[in-house]
Amino acid sequence: MYDAVFLDPKDISDLPKQPGVYKFHNNNGDIIYVGKAKNLKNRVSSYFNKSSNHNRKTIRLVGEIDKIEIAIVNSEFDALLLENSLIKELQPKYNILLKDDKSFPYLCITNEPFPRIISTRKRIARNGTYFGPYASVRAMNNVLELIRKLYTIRTCKLNLSDQNIKAGKFKVCLEYHIGNCKGPCEGIQQHDNYQKDINQAAEILKGNLNVPKQHFKLNMQQAAEELDYENAQKYKEKLELLEKFHSKSLVVNPKITDIDVCTIISEEKSAFVNYLRVKNGSITVTKTIQLKKKLDESEQELLLLALIDLRKLYESGTEEVLTNIDIENLPEKFHFIKPQIGDKKKLVELSLKNSLFFKKEKLNQNESSKIKELRVLKQLQNDLRLKELPIKIECFDNSNMQGTNPTASMVHFKNGRPKKSEYRHYHVKTVVGPDDFASMTEIVGRRYKRLKDEKQEMPNLIVIDGGKGQLSSAVKALKKLNLYGKIPIIGIAKRLEEIYFPEDPYPVHISKKSESLKLLQRLRDEAHRFAITFHRQIRSKNSFKIDLEGINGIGDKTIDQLLTHFKSPKKIREASFENLRNVVGTSKAEIIIKAFKQKKED
Question: What is the pTM (predicted TM-score) of this model?
């Protein structure tokens, strides 16, 4: 934990000259940027120094700062760790995106009398010992496949307690008969013998291949001396399997043992960081990530943030890090080296090759994605007989449940992709009761009246979620604005995926396999999702507002402040006293916490 202090931007002269983390809040109370500093006063002051050559994004950030929150820590390294965790937790608008490791695969040796080795994406410490995470499922499966070829470890989920085995509850299965298991379920294999295999497998998972290699080599020699050539051959084959696996990840110099390699290639808008983990002469981890720049961050800033994240993910504690850039003002606990010659230089070059390959693949993916987008849009243009390529498409949907809180949504796709900054929610204002047709007329009219009044660019295609009735209602709004015939408009009916055109009683059927129909379905489904989500929020907020209105000392202004800051009633209920206090003050936060507690008890 750390102590946080809040300051007005005018009071930056009061900042301490100590290491720490700073958070910039906007006037809504949202955290828009998190940064670290060796000297808080110097670093934060630099944002407000008019002589500094800030880029446009930094100038925009500074213009949004309403409040500064600082946390003093013991060292620059602690500040770096705290900054990393806060960025992952808060995902501020102006910070680069750092994701957590929840989706990465692990291998686990379970806590059971006869342990299993299983793959999982969840780490629950009490369930066993975890190894990884692995950069990909393929890499994890390669290790698991090797272990299963070398050792006879059970794959069943039976509860092999001494009591169950002695009671004869289980019978050996096919895995025993084909030689993949030695039958611990019937007591054919004893626990000590089974545990030796598990211990050997654990060494492989740790990256210590020398231990199992030595084991198989000694057993092979012993079997040969005893003229047991069949078993000697089996041990030889297992030894060769290990050698082959090891050779695929052998470093230039096997004497290089415990070391990290981290390199960066930077562009104008993004950077590519590769991380290699070298242990016992082998590369045990290789991972490349892309970081999108937000404030023209330096290569050093980006590399340090990524390195902290990757080392935490892959549980590295080594101090020595090889890299391709000069690191100034080194944080303690790191010893950065930019090698010029030799095997370490070759490792850096290998890491850079990974970064360059990843960058090339990303660019190729983007290029092929653009080609596909253009192909789909051309197909849609042909299927709907449009005069222009439908670069901009807008889709509308209504949502009301049992006639309450009528709302609507509009989603905007550009080049076949959602552009969420252009999405719009609507409260239906002029329609009483559950009248979807009148609601559609209202929202379509409101949308394009505004675009027309503000002289903004119109879409190339309008899509209405619904059949002839909904489409006719939208057309009515366009005619009133004198836009009918100037913007193509269609309706898509859910049941048979029929496409309706204005004033045409017969629908058009596009092939179910057509990419253009899939694009229209995506539009329709996204509009429906957006409308339903908004409607649920409105109902939830309304019911929550009624709950809060019953609390003495809490008025509409306070309720609106809470909903604006926390976005949902659920997040308000889950908020800590500190978070509530930051938004509405100490006395109101105490009232709200007390009321929530009382309601739970009731």
Answer: 0.50
